[in-house]
TrEMBL record:
Residues 329-476 form the Asn/Gln amidotransferase domain. GO terms for biological process: translation. This is Aspartyl/glutamyl-tRNA(Asn/Gln) amidotransferase subunit B. HAMAP family: GatB. PANTHER family: GLUTAMYL-TRNA GLN AMIDOTRANSFERASE SUBUNIT B MITOCHONDRIAL AND PROKARYOTIC PET112-RELATED. NCBIfam families: gatB, PRK05477.1-2, PRK05477.1-4. It comes from the Bacteria. Belongs to the GatB/GatE family. GatB subfamily. InterPro entries: Asn/Gln-tRNA_amidoTrfase_suB/E (IPR017959), Asn/Gln-tRNA_Trfase_suB/E_cat (IPR006075), Asn/Gln_amidotransferase (IPR018027), Asn/Gln_tRNA_amidoTrase-B-like (IPR003789), GatB (IPR004413), GatB_C_1 (IPR042114), GatB_Yqey_C_2 (IPR023168), Gln-tRNA_amidoTrfase_suB_CS (IPR017958). The keyword Lipoprotein does not apply. Keywords: ATP-binding, Ligase, Nucleotide-binding, Protein biosynthesis, Transferase.
């Protein structure tokens, strides 16, 4: 039996504000447990919430960047449910009048460009964080995250594979970063998503029962979770046990590599929504929308076009560079400092990518200053340092934060471009390798590569390899 996969996402992004949505507590990540709390965000009796104006501004900005209709009149609602990390036993959110209505986002797939429709974007407060203690019969709660402002981006069920869902999630992350709407630090929980997935027979029009995958905060885990849940549902349908697929919330257990049932999925009426009585309706003025449009920074689509037209890079290279705002800014900074456009791109997409992955850090946390990286590239370009030596220097820069010239001086790595010094080494190498000379004269031109390697070895990587090759070839021709 052939099935069609149907996926919709609910993406939660913490907004880039200094204070919480309804109080003056800091939103800074990494504070001591329960340090950034007050009676308002803890929901103590007698307190009243005051809406942070910057939250409205950033939500409108997100809606504009994602091609949404901005609802000039919207309101806050109470979403009632009890959970230990929600101290008020309700969440202030938006129900029937969200701040942003329908929108859309274009994504690039293997089958070409696709449009994913957005149902809405609404603003709400975040909940706290449960810390489950290993080998202890209890859990702890950190309320610092309570009241941190969120937008929830809700899609229509327009994606048809786990890979499409990951591509869409990456696209949203990029747009939010470029727009300065969220820092999107997934490792800190400021960007995460819930994924709704169902299967139906190919050609069937109506949707089948969906299952929600809760709180996924990495692209890799989103793909794995959806693939496993897709496989689980397909097997149930193949066995004719449709009744076993129930509307429920499941979580992804990365350790066991499977999805696990958490609870039966609630419907909207289970939350007993009603208008938040302590916050008046929100009126979005035309002047705010106009100012957001006027001040909108360059988004990924515009930067992609500019990089392709201005830097002579391939589309694939540009797509990788602009996939991360900070990486693209780092690259452009190198070019503005005089680095060769192609060389700078090659270094970032090879050596820089490798070390970022090894260290498991984000590009915004790269420890090498743009100025120092530009200096290293200049040393290679002017033949003061061989490419081989430069790679070692770069790794030291990444690990220590030192300037490249300091490392070169400490390790004595300056490239030898003195023809006399290289010629002396070349003569010794030729005397020791008569067979390579014979091979080269017999038409095996690759033999000179071995000889160059010997020169580099004897010079401890300092010899200018191009100069060494020219000297060796000239010496052999004169023999």
């Amino acid at each position: 039996m052939s099935y069609e996969t149907i996926i919709g996402l609910e993406i939660h992004a913490e907004l880039k504000t200094k204070t919480k949505i309804f109080c003056n507590c800091s939103t800074k990540f990494g504070a001591k447990p329960n340090e950034n709390t007050c009676p308002i965000c803890m929901g103590l009796p007698g307190t009243l919430p005051v809406l942070n104006e910057e939250v409205v501004h950033l939500a409108v900005k997100a809606g504009t960047a994602l091609n949404c209709k901005i609802n000039k009149l919207n309101k806050m609602d109470r979403k009632n449910y009890f959970y230990p990390d929600l101290p008020k036993a309700y969440q202030i959110s938006q129900f029937d009048l969200p701040i942003c209505g329908a929108g859309h986002v274009d994504i690039e797939t293997d089958d070409g460009k696709r449009i994913v429709r957005l149902n809405r974007i609404h603003i709400e407060e975040d909940a706290g964080k449960l810390v489950h203690m290993e080998y202890e019969p209890y859990s702890l709660i950190d309320y610092n995250r309570v009241g941190v402002p969120l937008i929830e981006i809700v899609t229509e069920p327009d994606m048809h594979s786990p890979q499409e869902a990951v591509t869409f999630f990456r696209t949203i992350k990029s747009i939010l970063e470029y727009g300065g709407i969220s820092d999107c630090r997934m490792e800190e929980g400021s960007l995460r998503c819930d994924a709704n997935i169902s299967l139906r027979k190919v050609g069937q029009q109506e949707l089948n029962t969906k299952v929600e995958m809760k709180n996924i905060s990495s692209f890799r885990e989103l793909q794995k979770a959806l693939e496993k849940e897709e496989k689980r549902q397909k097997e149930l349908y193949d066995y004719g046990e449709e009744f076993r697929i129930v509307q429920e919330t499941r979580r992804w257990d990365a350790g066991k590599g499977k999805t696990v049932s958490m609870r039966t999925k609630e419907d909207a009426n289970d939350y007993r929504y009603f208008p938040e009585p302590d916050i008046i309706p929100i009126v979005v003025k035309d002047s705010l929308i106009e100012s957001v449009i006027a001040d909108m920074p360059e988004l990924p689509v515009q930067r992609r076009e500019r990089f392709i037209n201005g830097y002579g890079l391939t589309e694939k290279e540009v797509d990788i560079l602009i996939s991360d705002k900070f990486l693209s800014e780092y690259y452009e900074g190198l070019v503005n400092l005089g680095a060769d456009k192609k060389s700078a791109c090659n270094w970032l997409l090879t050596d820089m990518f490798r070390l970022v992955k090894e260290k498991e850090i984000e590009f915004q946390d790269i420890p090498v200053k743009k100025e120092d990286m530009a200096s290293l590239l200049k040393m290679v370009e002017t033949k003061k340092l061989s490419v081989t030596a430069a790679k070692g220097v770069f790794e030291d820069m990444f690990n220590t934060g030192k300037h490249p010239e300091e490392i070169v001086k400490e390790k004595g790595l300056g490239q030898i471009s003195d023809s006399g010094a290289i010629e002396e080494i070349a003569v010794a190498v030729l005397e020791a390798n008569p067979q390579s000379i014979s091979d080269y004269k017999a038409g095996k031109t690759q033999a000179v590569g071995y000889l160059v390697g010997q020169v580099m070895k004897q010079s401890k990587g300092k010899a200018n390899p191009q100069m060494a090759r020219e000297i060796l070839e000239n010496k052999i021709k004169d023999m």
